[in-house]
Amino acid sequence: MLKQRAIRIGAGFVLVAVGFVLGLAAHSQWENLQASEGNKEVAAKKVMRVGQVIGLRPEKKDYYIQLHANTWPGVLKRIHDSNIRNYSIYLAELDGKLYLFSYYEYIGDDYEADMAKIAADPETQRWWKETDPCQIRLPGTPEGKWWKPIPEVFHTD
Q1: Is 157 in a helix, a strand, or coil?
Q2: pTM recorded for the entire structure
Q3: Is residue 30 pLDDT above 90, yes or no?
Q4: 86 vs 112: CA distance, rounded Å
Q5: Residue 45: CB partners within 8 Å, gap ≥ 6?
């Protein structure tokens, strides 16, 4: 009788363990399905990658770096609300001159309209009053542009 009771208890533990493992597997499958659905949404949305370059005044280098170490929240919000993601600015010295290289990804549907929203934003306009004097517009920059667009020659995911 004691032996039968032990077998029943053992069988109960086995059933609970099997149920736990099956539950974990089902949950894992559900999470994978959710992740793949999210990836389809991101993949379905076309990403436009943008690279740009501009000069940096040597006497303004430290100030420019300091500004970007403490970017104003309103500027960051406007960038995000205008569908810009993964935005980076790099600093390089070439032949004794300083250059800023920027990269971002645009995920919206109307690039020109989103850029117009940034340009019309009062907080961004105040920001540019701080950053523009630090920069040197480069020869060959298209009319109406501040940063010079640079073409992408290679990309891989």
Answers
A1: coil
A2: 0.70
A3: no
A4: 19
A5: 107
With CA atoms as reference, report the closest residue to 75 among 117, 37, 33, 41.
117
Distance CA 97, CA 56 (A): 8
Pairing of strands 148-150, 48-56: antiparallel
43-73: per-residue pLDDT in tens?
Answer: 557 899 999 999 999 999 999 999 999 999 9
**DSSP-derived secondary structure for 54-108:** EEE-GGGHHHHHHHHHT--HHHHHHHHHTTEEEEEEEEEEETTEEEEEEEEEE-S
The single residue listed with the structure tokens 């891989």 is 156
Show the tokens assigned to 38. 């999210």
Rounded to whole angstroms, the Cα distance separating 4 from 68 reads 73
- Residue 98 CB coordination number (10 Å): 19
The pLDDT tens digits of the residues spanning 94-121 come to 999 999 999 999 999 999 999 999 999 9
Nearest by Cα to 100 from 150, 42, 52:
52
